[in-house]
Specification:
Number of strands: 4
Shape: globular
Structural class: alpha+beta
Strand content: 5-15%
Number of helices: 9
Order of helices and strands: HHHHHHHEEHHEE
Helix content: 40-55%
Largest sheet: 4 strands, antiparallel
Length: 202
């Protein structure tokens, strides 16, 4: 795919989140520069996903792969570093918003359009999703039948990294003050990923 302005911005965003952790772990080394170079190579190799609503997640996967290839750390250590950086990122908190904005029912029509378009499978590496409306058990649900993160990791010969990126979904939900429940992921052998979001109890 093309290394667009949005791809560059997401790369900067994730690099900024990890900057402090990388500096603490690798003093005197310009680790962010090496990671950014690998990130760009991964993006340029990646299959295009068009104007996907989940471009940020696709780029997060590209950055995490680049991180793992450059630090020399085990995937779990890289995950912990990435997680800590995301929790500390003021930019991320501002970008994500909160539970009220994410769970706003006014967003459902747009999400149902996204669902319909995803099932057309126009782009090989994009997600395929059913969006589920509020029930007594949750406020918003997704069933993902195909996952762009899993596809990118597979293309890059590191499918084993996808499960770590799945764990970041709980980090994002927590930052937005939401509860995420999930029983399985494609990355760990399930037929689909079932996301169920609710506001945290006060």
């Amino acid at each position: 795919m093309k290394y667009t302005v949005m791809c560059k911005l997401y790369g900067f965003f994730y690099a900024d989140a990890c900057k402090r952790e990388l500096k603490n772990r690798f003093p005197g080394r310009n680790m962010p520069r090496a990671i950014q170079a690998e990130y760009k190579h991964i993006v340029l190799r990646a299959k295009d996903i068009g104007n996907s609503r989940l471009l940020s997640a696709y780029m997060m996967a590209a950055y995490f792969i680049a991180l793992c290839r450059n630090t020399g750390l085990m995937p779990e250590e890289n995950y912990q570093m990435f997680e800590a950086g995301l929790y500390d990122s003021r930019l991320l908190r501002k970008a994500l918003g909160d539970a009220d904005s994410y769970l706003d029912v006014k967003k459902m029509p747009g999400r149902k359009v996204w669902e319909k378009v995803s099932h057309e499978r126009k782009y090989e590496n994009d997600w395929v999703v059913d969006v589920l409306e509020k029930t007594d058990n949750y406020e918003l649900g997704y069933n993902y039948y195909e996952c762009g993160i899993c596809k990118l990791c597979k293309d890059e010969g590191c499918f084993e990294l996808a499960k770590y990126l799945c764990r970041l979904d709980f980090v994002m939900a927590d930052i937005m003050n939401m509860k995420l429940e999930r029983t399985g992921t494609i990355a760990e052998g399930a037929d689909f990923c079932d996301f169920r979001y609710s506001r945290k109890s006060k």
